[in-house]
Each structure stands twice: as structure tokens, then as C-alpha cells.
């Protein structure tokens, strides 16, 4: 039942929605659709958004096999290749205007990681060696420009001078380093290693996994720390439930792709502890709460958090055989169907829904962060894992 339902959601709802966002006049995909489903064709186009769209169509093609999907992927790829990469100073821009010109030239490790993730997937889908070469160029940009004695710095101007990391900070805090950036570097380098098997990529991936295990993970609470200063001292008291459950399966994926049995064992054990913790403290009324800040729980149902919860709980079930994880995945999927999927003509998924099941009209349907990556990936992961209920 689950596989049929998510396949239908992917093929008949998510893909057709994003197909309509294609901008054949100026390239790429339109950057903004309001909650009221009003399209702004002159809105800026996020580079993170376009990397996620490229990843989405590349993997949808590899999952479903339709040549049309590869064409949509190529359309996103051409925009990234021709507009978003800074061929003079390296990296990718943060934001383009609607015509594909740089609107914000900030360089961010997180943003570059998503470009690597997308280009590596597009190479696997298309065999385009230029895409792989671009991914390696961005890998070198990160390794040559962002490292300090502790790890990866995150926010820079166009010429790689450090700037405030406002883009990945929140809740009134300023963080030099974030769990979020490390997690998505792991995701990106996993995909690049899967594409080409380069040992230097494997070496850096192991380093990042080590940081998650030894610095970010807290064994006493079975949770991941979120914000840090340069030397990885903790900043703030935030627990991001969605990132925790997402991290469990992304770290497992990295270990699987590396083929490292010792790491696989370590992270499977760690991931199960995190999954149990999230199930116990964050699952409420059939959905996953968002986060805790100084002990105050934010119960907003965020679209990406719900999507990652489905995958994370299925992953925990596959590791443990514990039926309660499968029951949790089912409860979240039922909640998604009932409250998060937008039933309106021309809608996709609501970005945020209150604990009382009311969609937040302040949150756009498409924007720099609102994309087909989490919910589309959830559908494809369920299909690939072949776990049903």
C-alpha cells in the first residue's frame, strides 16, 4: 500500500507540479510561488533550490526511467553550469536573479555541497563527464578554501573571505559551524564517491563521519548538537528533531557506499539510539515536532521534517526489525496525507502546518528552501527500500 501511494504521489502530484515551474525563457526554474499559489516569474532563483531540483529530476529519472525526467534534469543542469558557478573565484553563488545573473555572491559550504550532490547525481543519470568534472572542481573549492584547524568553515564572500554565518544560523544565534553543513557535506561526498570511487573523497567523507560521531553526537542524550563556534564549542541549546532523524539514514548511506563494515556497525548502533530517542520525545499526534529551543518544544509540522521521519523510521525498522518503527513511519505518512499534502489545484505540499492542522499562510509553496528534494526523495527511498505496510 505505502509503495503504491508514494509512487502515485511522486508521479501524479510532485513531478507534474515542478514541471510547471520550468522557465524556458530565462533558464532554470521559477524561484517563488506564494502560499496563495501566485507565481512570481521575476523572483530571484535560489542556487540551493536549483541544485535540489537537479538532484530530484536526476534521481526521479533513475527511479522511474522516463526520458522526459532526464530532460527536466538537463534544464536545471544547464542553468547551474552556465549561471550559478563562479568560474573566476570558484564555488557557486548564493542567489541568482530571474534572468540568471548573480544577485548574491556569497559562497557557502552548505550551498556548494548541494551543487556537488546534484552534479554527481546528474552524472550518474546522464553519463555527462562535464558534470562530474564540475562536481570535482567544487569539491576542490571546499577542500582548498574552507578548512581551518578544526573543520569546515561555512560562510564567505565571493573571494573566500569569512563573513557572518547568518544563512545557517537561527533562533537569534550566530554559529560559525553547524551540524547541518557537516550533514550535507556527508550527503554530497557520499554521492560523489558513489559516482566515481575516488579515494580522496572517501578520506574526507570518513573525516566528516568522524566529526559527526565524535563531536556532534552526544551519547548521554542520543542527540545531535546543532550550532558551534569555530573550535566546536556549543552555541545555544537547540535540538533539531528533523535533522536527527534525517542524519540517521544519511550516515548509514555513507557507510554503505564506503563499504566500511566497522563504520557501518558504529553508525547503525548510533542511528538506532537516535531513532529511539526521536520516537520517544518528538513523535506526537502522529507527526514529528520540529525542534526544542532551551527546552521549549516547537510543535510546527514542517514538510521536510515529516518526509525525513518516514525514511528515518523505515531505516530504523530495517536495521532493528522493530515493528514500532514501521508503525511510526506509517503514522507520519498518514498525517502527511491528511494534513501536509496540499489538496488545492496547483498546490504541492504545505511548507508548515500548525499542531492544530492549520497550514501557515506566511510560508511559500516554492522558495529558496522549499523544493522537491525532501518529499520527492522520501517517495524514491520508499520505492527503493521496498518496505510496505
TrEMBL record:
Q: What class of enzyme is it?
A: isomerase
* Family listed: Belongs to the N-acylglucosamine 2-epimerase family. Belongs to the cellobiose 2-epimerase family.
Q: What catalytic activity does the UniProt entry give for this protein?
A: D-cellobiose = beta-D-glucosyl-(1->4)-D-mannopyranose
Task: Name the EC number(s).
Answer: 5.1.3.11
Q: Which key words tag this protein in UniProt? A: Isomerase
Report the protein name in the record.
Answer: Cellobiose 2-epimerase
One MF term in the entry's GO annotations = cellobiose epimerase activity
- Per its database record, what is this protein's job? Catalyzes the reversible epimerization of cellobiose to 4-O-beta-D-glucopyranosyl-D-mannose (Glc-Man).
Sorted alphabetically, which HAMAP family does this protein's record hold? Cellobiose_2_epim (MF_00929)
- Native species: Ruminococcus albus SY3
Give yes or no: UniProt keyword Disulfide bond.
no
InterPro entries in the cross-refs: 6-hairpin_glycosidase_sf, 6hp_glycosidase-like_sf, AGE/CE, Cellobiose_2_epim
Q: Which GO terms describe its biological process?
A: carbohydrate metabolic process
